[in-house]
Specification:
The protein has helices spanning about 5-10, 80-85, 85-90, 105-115, 125-135, 145-150, 155-160, 185-190, 200-210, 230-250, 260-275, 290, 365-375, 375-385, 410-420, 435-450, 455-465; strands spanning about 65-70, 95-100, 120-125, 160-165, 165, 170-175, 180, 315, 335-340, 350-360, 425. By secondary structure, it is an alpha/beta fold. The chain has two domains: about 5-175 and about 355-425, Periplasmic binding protein-like II (D-Maltodextrin-Binding Protein, domain 2), CATH 3.40.190; about 180-350 and about 430-465, 3-Layer(aba) Sandwich (D-Maltodextrin-Binding Protein, domain 2). A hairpin with a 2-residue loop joins strand 4 (about 160-165) and strand 5. It comes from Luteimicrobium subarcticum. Belongs to the bacterial solute-binding protein 1 family.
């Protein structure tokens, strides 16, 4: 399976860029430990020799043991992961061996099927997780991990690590996709306000047009994965127009692409992306969306390092990595983002993606690291190791993640959105659908749709690719 996560991370290394702070440990490491190895969550760092190991005592003496991790985040972007495990290694005696491969998604399946899987794998999508469980080589998560998932993550997140009623994998990293990028300084100059409902968003777009502006910019070119940004748009609109239950049924194949609800979601997106009055600001006409790379599409949001011709750009939290290194990103800066609103101000559906930690061994040292990985302590270590600058680093839906450990304003905004008690989170739909659809017909036909194909032809052709059994 080729996921949007794989394609995106292969195309911009700075998403996972990090400092080389080799021996980090949060100040909370000296707090009292709980049964599942959790601990404090706030800032501060200390030298490796000064680590207070009291919180790690519940894991026991694991000196001489080794645990292997396999992932798709390669050097040098892997350094924050390596750093985040150092206190655990120091205090338990375990050696953690992290290896990564750009072809991880294909190779981890090969390894699992051959009985040569790693101890732990960082899985970037629920669909791949299900495939790995189907090999019969994955092992269910221990009770300590399940309890941590209940404590530190919402039920929606735990569900994505569950296959056929068995919990296998706790969440790790995350991204928020329901964002619209804009320029606060430009908005202030023009007297525009951030919308709080879908109707407000439409009214704002119309106001911009009346003022002589073309509001939206977009690009979906992504090499072999061209088209995926439109699938995110459609998924966001299914969530907003019809709610999470219909969304879940659609992702599972119980609601077809040809259903009027899904057709309405496409048309709702088309009201923006196929509207020549709205798009493609500073780039060209509607068809230019298909030839513009997703990395370049929103750069003219920035009035300083771009030309300020674009007012609105829907893209995920990781898009911060694409702006100029000197871009002024923040609530009062030249570049920022707001939550893509729901039908009402009280509706709070959020589309996103994330990673999950799956085990292929139940040895004590593996379960110990798996348990530590599911705590707030680890999440804060990883966040600190990943926070390089205002363009952002890494976030998690872990409720114990302290925003003080995040440098990037978009990271902080994203964590606030994930933690909002009103948030109803749903994982990227096409990353859960069968590959023939999610990374096949959905991407391809969405591209054809943006270049002129009708909505009805588009949904019919996508649905035709859905596996018959």
């Amino acid at each position: 399976m080729t996921s949007k996560t794989r394609v995106r991370t292969a195309r911009y290394g700075s998403f996972f860029a990090a400092t080389a702070a080799i021996a980090l440990v949060v100040a909370g490491c000296s707090s009292s430990d709980d049964d599942n190895g959790g601990g404090g969550s706030t800032g501060g760092s200390t030298a490796a020799g000064d680590i207070d190991c009291s919180q790690f005592s519940s894991y026991g003496d694991l000196k001489g043991k080794e645990v292997t991790i396999y992932a798709g985040v390669v050097a040098p972007e892997d350094q924050p992961y390596v750093d985040s495990f150092k206190p655990f290694e120091k205090c338990t005696g375990v050696k953690v061996n992290y290896t990564a491969d750009k072809n991880f998604e294909q190779q981890v399946l090969v390894q699992a099927e051959a009985g040569n899987a790693p101890d732990l794998a960082i899985v970037p999508q629920p669909g791949l997780l299900k495939q790995l469980v189907a090999t019969g080589k994955a092992v269910k998560a221990p009770d300590s991990v399940s309890q941590n998932a209940d404590k530190w993550f919402g039920a929606d997140w735990k569900k994505y690590g569950t296959v056929d009623g068995t919990f296998y994998a706790a969440p790790s990293g995350a991204s928020v996709k329901s964002l619209v990028w804009y320029s606060p300084t430009q908005f202030a100059s023009a007297g525009y306000e951030v919308p709080t409902t879908l109707d407000d968003l439409k009214a704002l777009s119309d106001k911009m047009v009346a003022d002589g502006n073309k509001p939206w910019c977009a690009g979906i070119n992504s090499g072999e994965a061209t088209g995926w940004p439109i699938t995110d748009w459609v998924e966001d609109f299914v969530l907003r127009l019809d709610g999470p239950d219909v969304y879940d049924q659609w992702v599972a194949g119980d609601v077809k692409f040809t259903d009027p609800k899904i057709v309405s979601a496409f048309d709702g997106v088309g009201a923006y992306l196929k509207n020549s009055d709205y798009v493609n600001a500073g780039i060209g006409d509607v068809k230019s969306i298909a030839t513009t790379t997703f990395q370049d599409a929103g750069l003219n949001i920035d009035p300083v390092n771009g030309d300020g011709s674009c007012w609105l750009h829907r893209q995920a939290s990781f898009y911060a990595a694409n702006f100029d290194k000197n871009a002024n990103i923040g609530p009062d800066g030249d570049v920022y983002a707001f939550y893509l609103p729901g039908k009402t101000a009280d509706d709070h559906p959020v589309l996103g993606a994330g990673e999950f930690v799956l085990a292929f061994s139940d040895r004590p040292e593996v379960q110990a690291l798996q348990t530590f990985w599911s705590t707030d302590t680890w999440a804060n270590l990883k966040a600190k190791a990943s926070s390089e600058d205002t363009k952002g680093g890494w976030i998690s839906a872990n409720k114990g993640l302290d925003e003080a450990n995040l440098v990037g304003p978009i990271d902080k905004l994203s964590v606030q959105i994930l933690k909002d008690p009103k948030t109803v989170f749903r994982f990227d739909g096409s990353d859960q659908m069968p590959a023939a659809v999610g990374s096949g017909s959905f991407w391809k036909q969405a591209t054809n749709w943006i270049t002129g194909q009708s909505t009805q032809d588009t949904v019919t052709k996508i649905q035709a690719a859905w596996p018959k059994s």
